[in-house]
Design a protein that fits this description.
By secondary structure, this protein is of the alpha/beta class. It folds into 4 domains: 88 residues, Barwin-like endoglucanases, CATH 2.40.40; 46 residues, no CATH class; 202 residues, Nucleoside phosphorylase/phosphoribosyltransferase catalytic domain (Pyrimidine Nucleoside Phosphorylase, Chain A, domain 2); 82 residues, Alpha-Beta Complex (Aldehyde Oxidoreductase, domain 3). The chain is built from 18 helices and 18 strands. A 6-stranded mixed β-barrel has the order 1-5-2-4-3-6. Helix 12 links the parallel strand 10 and strand 11. The relative contact order is 0.10.
Amino acid sequence: MTKLKLRPVAIDTYKENVAYLHRGCTFYRSEGFQALSKIEIHKEEDGQPVIAVLNIVDDAGITAPGELGISEQVFAQLNLPPGTSVTVKHATPPASLDAVHDKISGEALDYEQYLKIAQDIVENRYSKIEIAAFLVGCAETGFERDEVLHLTRAMVETGDRLEWGETLVADKHCIGGIPGNRTTMLIVPIVAAHGMLMPKTSSRAITSPAGTADTMEVLANVDLLPDTLHAIVQRERGCLAWGGTARLAPVDDILIAVERPLSMDSPGQMVASILSKKVAAGSTRLLIDIPLGPTAKVRSHQGALRLRKLFEYVGDRIGLELEVVITDGSQPIGRGIGPVLETRDVMQVLERKPGAPMDLREKALQLAGRIIEFDADVRGGAGYHIARDILDSGRALAKMEAIIEAQGKKPNPPSLGRLHHVITAPGTGTVTAIDNLQMASIARLAGAPLDKGAGVDLHKKTGEHVEAGEPLYTIYAAFPADYEFALDAARQNSGYTLREAHE
């Protein structure tokens, strides 16, 4: 049996196992390997192999003949010293690919089929191309509601689950699509200060300029190991962490890694993603926020009701009590779009600054009030006033500061991008609409969320008067290429609609 020596290659392949073989390697020629074929890497003859997608290189500086280059992710899984000899074989195609082909053809899949797909994805038996085919097949042919339930259960089953030892574990999730909608970072300290348990584990942004984890990371460490997470939550009654390190529904993280560059977020996939993460995180009571608006993810009241029924159907069958609220998604919430700018808005609300965005404050109080009413000792309708008192008294700020310290405060938080440009009003009038999709696109082109200081700072919201030449918003970026991309997009379509004064 041919042996190859391991050689770590310092490449982050982002949720995909990748190996590298030199074209001049006799093993490559004799075994008939091809680029993008899958291989099994065996530490021992009868041990569990690590599956990887093969790339062929011509530079011996990367991988020489007789060596097997491995990406950072594979190196971590093998946990072997460089130079260790391993056996390499052709990988057997995952049997669950037959179910993927059935899905692409429009057939409904059962629980066992989704479970096998989820298991194979977690075990790295799928390449990103095959995962993309699965996602596109699901998006194009759609899900029956029982399929969403099956996928949700399969995603929970193939990961770990957190247990908190309490009957009421609160959580909140927004389906996204509204830039600047950073209410969670206000709700968690309010609810935790009330005394309810709210361990918030969030994903990073998929198609938006910032997610809760991306934004909280400006202030504190969000990559928390399960034991650390438990200790923080038991002490502070809440946290704002990234869910990836806890291996909660890990299939979801792998799917998101493919969804992000494709800008995909189909309704059935979204429901399964959200609810699987919540069940895995140990939540028992959940508030779902569905923003509704002409440029939101959900654009009709009928569509919002359909989505609410799907959430309720799946939630009821996986033992998760949930409440769905339909909120105003007609424009961005707050003024900042992008991690640093959204963090500024959150802290202004917590610190009760005079210029704090009132729409962000009000929405956070409304949602926090609904969650506080999950508490059996709180009568219906009283939650909002309790939430407002907690915020106005400074208790929410104190709780947020305690959570930040517990998670690990960032000693040198990122700052706004050094490149900036003001987009001005073409005429005098009133702002009648702001396009959520365009504003999110401009912020992403500027570099958000990977560049935390990039984004868009809004100076005008709908209903406000603006004079010709007056600033509508400022674009921030760190790199010239991103800066030019964002400026070009804004010049083609500012995202703002004005009703001019003479109309």
